[in-house]
Design goal:
154 residues; mainly alpha; 2 domains; 69% helix
Length: 154
């Protein structure tokens, strides 16, 4: 199985666990004299089985991520950490640029009000954010390619 396939299965398993959790909660209590919509005990058993599957997938994915070498990007785990931080950097820069440009709930100013000035160079922030966005896209493509090339470890 390829890593990308395992990632899709992990996503499905996590979604299944969440659905089962919701169904257990809905069926955990019922009014006397009525029948619950579903058997909460059976649903809990299904959730436990799905969680076991999810744990195995997560362990195998993590092992694979730590072992797969992506060359200059380091291991796949290193590349994922780098991508996460690049995304956070991008978010910080775009939020700062939006705030400096007055895009956060900008209120109309009257002549008698004080003028608001930007403490940051908005154009520079946007340019830096654009470079980061490009770097994120390129790294993400390398990660995706690796996901489809790497075999999942046991």
């Amino acid at each position: 199985m390829k890593l990308a396939e395992a990632l899709a299965e992990r996503s499905d398993a996590a979604r299944r666990v969440e659905q089962l959790r919701s169904r257990v909660v809905s069926s955990a209590r019922y009014q006397e004299g009525e029948t619950p919509a579903e058997d909460a005990v059976r649903l809990l058993a299904e959730a436990d089985e799905a969680l076991g599957t999810l744990e195995v997938l997560i362990r195998r994915i993590n092992r694979t991520n730590a072992a797969v070498d992506m060359g200059e990007d380091g291991t796949l785990t290193d590349a994922l950490a780098r991508r996460d931080v690049l995304r956070l950097r991008h978010s910080v820069l775009t939020s700062a640029a939006d705030a400096a440009a007055g895009q956060r709930g900008a209120a109309r100013q009257l002549r008698s009000e004080l003028t608001m000035l930007s403490a940051l160079d908005v154009a520079d922030l946007r340019a830096r954010a654009d470079v980061l966005a490009r770097d994120i896209r390129r790294l993400d493509m390398r990660i995706q390619r690796t996901n489809w090339e790497a075999d999942l470890l046991d």
